[in-house]
Amino acid sequence: MPKTSTRRLKTYQTSLGFYDQAIAAPSMKAALAAWGASSNLFHQGVARETDDPDVVAATMAKPGIVLRRPVGSNKAFTESAELPTDLAEGDARPRAKRRAVKAAPKPSRKTDDKQARKAAAAFEKEERRREAERQKEEAARAKERARRDKAVATAQAALDKARREHEARAEAIESERAVLDQRAEAEQARWDKQRTKLEQALRKSRA
Known about the structure:
alpha+beta; 4-stranded antiparallel β-sheet; 4 helices
């Protein structure tokens, strides 16, 4: 992945399933991709940009990483969050599967520009790492395909060679069989002629 200029990150927040989710990303599109959303949650009103200083600080510390907390709680966002404790008894679904994020209070301070640039650089580093992993996995798949294709080609070549050898041997046997058939016919004709002559001699001797 080619190196790009540092992009300023923003913090986006939503609620999906059991969790509130937040991420520091350069755009809403990038946030939706990280969340694995199949529709535009921002247009639906269930996701938005947030200026909550605690949420911003948590996401900027781990840009590009989806952070979670139990849905509807005020706990800190982390990479590994526990399930909500207020699930209905006997029901594994949260009370509100998807709800609009409540407006956060206006921050009392703004994110330091230096911290934001550092977080943006970390985000791009994470993107490059993911791209490198993707390329590594693709190279491994290509190597496996090449190995498999070579094995198939080797097996096919062996089969073709064996088939040619079989056909050559079968043709030789057929040729030998034709010769033997001709010899057998000649022998039968010789015998028929000799037997006829001997039988005639036998009949004369009995007369």
